[in-house]
Amino acid sequence: MKVRVWVLLVVLAALGALTVLPVGAQSFSWVAEYYNNTNLTDPKVLTRTEGALAFNWAAGSPGTGVNTDNFSVRFASDPFFQAGTYRFFILADDAVRLAVGFPFQPQLDTIASPKVGQIVSVDIALPAGVSHVQLDYQEFSGNAYVYLEWFNLAQNRNPQPSFQALALNPGQGGGSTTNTPIIPAGTAPWTAQYYANAILSGSPTAILSEATPTRDWGAGSPFASIPADNWSVRWTSTQTLPAGNYLVRVRADDGIRVVINGITYINQWAASTGQTYTATVPLNAGQHVFLVEFYEAGGNASLSYEFGLPGAVIQPTQPPILTGAYITVTGAFRLNVRNLPSAINTTILTKINRNESYSIVGRNSNSSWWQINVNGTIGWVNARFVTAFNATNIPITDGGAQVVPTSTPPTVTCNTAPPPRLVVGRTGRVTPGLPNNIRQSPTSNSALLGQIPTGGVFTVLAAPVCANGFYWWQVNYNGIVGWTPEGGSGQYWIEPL
């Protein structure tokens, strides 16, 4: 009799333990179909079987052949349910659509209004047996993550998803300073020194002035003279600030170090996958010296840097009412604004959000891209993701130029150099041979910003300047803006396209 009672207690304990587990975390598989667009349109670029539906891809790609931005996934499974009402929880960046059972109608849908970083839920009554569960996911830009769990409310009247701590901060959940809004402080520029190694060793390959250390390089490199992996960068800046207890918050892939006034507040000098680190920084009024160091080991590379006073989120002011030609973002939650009308081999200048509107200043030849003015930044957006208004008689400005190119180059005298051939607003290319240096100013003694390799294509921004026996042109090569020489000793090093 004692043995039977003991066995019964063990069985009951095991059954009790099962009731606290969310059905979404139990062992069954999902068929996942990945698309390189945000609307689940064929062709599929990747199909595979997944385990638990809990993914944080950060700024990277979900798998081989899948975009880092502007992709979608359909997850499908057929788990067994006991009869009852189930609460489904979802956390995602950017949008989701959940359909459970038949007829096939979504019970939860954030496609029209993404709830980034927010846990959303819905209660669904299900019969006993197998029910089809389908989750559609859309990723527009930036970080990408999606989590799904569900609970039987008869077994748990007040369930909480296991990813509760990740809400509003998928990189690393929990902690008051991790989720605290930060009002930015400090506006002085940063001096960035890039090294072609991961240990900040030797002379920097490029020195640039940048507004912030925040960057998302994806699987690429900062520019041509830096490798895609095993590189590092050091930012320094002197900021004049009022007294206060400040917060510094960084999310890095890979290593990160933050030093303020010689005191190290964050030192995570190791490979990572987008973890978030925070620290409190008490400062007196006056000037303060900031140093931020970052290294990339391999794979994707990104850094988010925030510094300021904790406080409520500052709501943006209402934008002015636009007249004339303008676009409104209607087909994306966040939309890239690029330097040229193409999604391939172009630079992202900034990002704009759903329902925001900006003036149109130009278009490409078939109106598939609009050139817009984003608070002084001129760039291109794909017409598929916006709605254009009053867009008649818009001039063609294809090529990304902010001015209509002239037919002939301006007259400049520089007796020892071959005659200039480039045209402002058009593109050029480095001729076969050595790469062309890009310098901060039109002189051989200026700081080296980077290099344009043989065959590298750039945009011409300004008329030539004669110095050191060369014609120097201001150019934009993959986001590096600087000056490069056209040629010397009767030979051209760059040519017009």
Summarize the structure.
By secondary structure, the chain is mainly beta.
Give a verbal description of the structure:
It is a single chain. By secondary structure, this protein is mainly beta. It folds into 4 domains: 22-170, Jelly Rolls (Sandwich), CATH 2.60.120.1560; 182-310, Galactose-binding domain-like (Jelly Rolls, Sandwich); 326-389, SH3 type barrels, CATH 2.30.30.40; 427-496, Roll (SH3 type barrels). Helices cover 4% and strands 47% of the residues. The chain is built from 2 helices and 39 strands. It has a 6-stranded antiparallel sheet with strand order 2-1-4-11-7-8, with no helix packed on it. The radius of gyration is 27 Å and the shape is globular. The protein starts with a helix and ends with a strand.
Q: Which short descriptors sum up this protein?
A:
mainly beta, Jelly Rolls, six-stranded antiparallel beta sheet, disordered N terminus, globular, SH3 type barrels, single chain
SS strand fraction? over 45%
| Secondary structure category | mainly beta
Number of helices: 2
CATH top level class name of the largest domain: Mainly Beta
- The rounded Rg comes to 27 Å
| Total beta strands | 39
Q: How many structural domains can be distinguished in the coordinates?
A: 4
**The CATH architecture of the largest domain:** Sandwich
What kind of sheet is the major sheet?
A: 6 strands, antiparallel
| Overall pLDDT | 80
| Poorly predicted runs | 1-21, 169-176, 312-319, 399-410
How do the strands line up in the largest sheet?
2-1-4-11-7-8
Shape: globular
Helical percentage: under 10%
The CATH topology of the largest domain = Jelly Rolls
Q: What distance separates the N and C termini?
A: 93 Å
